[in-house]
Amino acid sequence: MFALCSLAFACNVPAKGFDVIENFLEQSFAYTVVLSDSDVFTVGIKDFNPNELFNTDNPELGTEDSVANRKKYGISTLPMSFRLNDEEEKNKHELFFRMSGLATDENVKWGNETVFDDFRQVILDVYTAYRYEYKFDEHWTITPGIGTHLMRYENTMDYNSATGKSYAPILDGLLFNTTAWANIYEPHLKLSYKKNEDWGKWQVSSAGHYFYGYGWGEANQGEIGNSEGWYIVNSATLVYDIEQIGRSIQSVYSTIRRVDVGSDVSQPLGTTFYYEATVGWLMTPPFEISFVDNIGLGLTFNYGSAFKGGSLVLFFNQD
């Protein structure tokens, strides 16, 4: 597991830790940055293989292994945005906050052991960003921004096997049953075209993100590394309004996006790009709530990544 089999046979722990553990921690923080961004990866509450729904056999749309991989990851996000000036003003300043948590549970098998050890990871992320929205005209908008992540990584290993128990004195505190922190900075830029219609609205956009940070903590003798990565999101969105009851608007929401990724992100995602399509229902609140724009329910389909498959999703403040 984690390409660390040879590590388990080390007699002495180097003073500066292992490069392979450092790379593992860098990638763990990096893919959390991507998976916690709802404009890049849509989190589901129930995963399934779309081939069973569409009666197809396309391995890029989903397999038993990829759906099992999706089920290993539990992701929760709570995004909130606050305008710093009046809505009537042409150009706007915005503060964006997002709290997210990612948890994974899996079994570890050592060699020919028949007993599995239980491994669990939890990564918490508090993200804050400032964004400036500049409107060229009523349709075109460019939004530069800068954000920062404060992240905490923690894992636990329950040694059930004889082999795992024999390696525990070497690996505890170094790789297992340990913690790490990271502070990651993320400049980003988004260009979008939006048009309102009698029936609703549609929008196309392109956004680029780059992030880089530094880590510290107990794991790997304090050698946590510098997580680095980038991702580009090209998307098209359509919102068709069905009816309005009082203040609440009922809408059909659909979007398709292509996501290109690089550096520490591509290996955990198993690709350099993937596609995601989402369709569902949205509802604005029947009464004004400053931090809630809309809620809803839908289906999302991931094509071409290590998380390929489908999910039932809940929408919250969906653009």
Structural class by SSE content: mainly beta
Q: What is the first-to-last residue Cα distance?
A: 38 Å
Number of strands: 12
Q: Which overall shape is indicated by the principal axes computed on the Cα atoms?
A: globular
Strand order of the largest sheet: 1-12-11-10-9-8-7-6-5-4-3-2
Strand residue percentage: over 45%
Q: What's the structural blueprint in terms of helices and strands?
A:
Elements: H1 19-35, E1 46-48, H2 50-54, H3 64-72, E2 73-83, E3 92-108, E4 117-135, E5 140-158, H4 162-171, E6 178-197, E7 200-217, E8 228-245, E9 248-263, H5 266-269, E10 273-283, E11 295-303, E12 309-316
Antiparallel strand pairs: 1-12, 2-3, 3-4, 4-5, 5-6, 6-7, 7-8, 8-9, 9-10, 10-11, 11-12
What does this structure look like?
By secondary structure, this protein is mainly beta. The chain is built from five helices and twelve strands. A twelve-stranded antiparallel beta sheet has the order 1-12-11-10-9-8-7-6-5-4-3-2. Strand 8 and strand 9 form a beta hairpin. The longest helix has 17 residues. The chain is globular. The two termini are 38 Å apart. The model has no long low-confidence stretch (mean pLDDT 89).
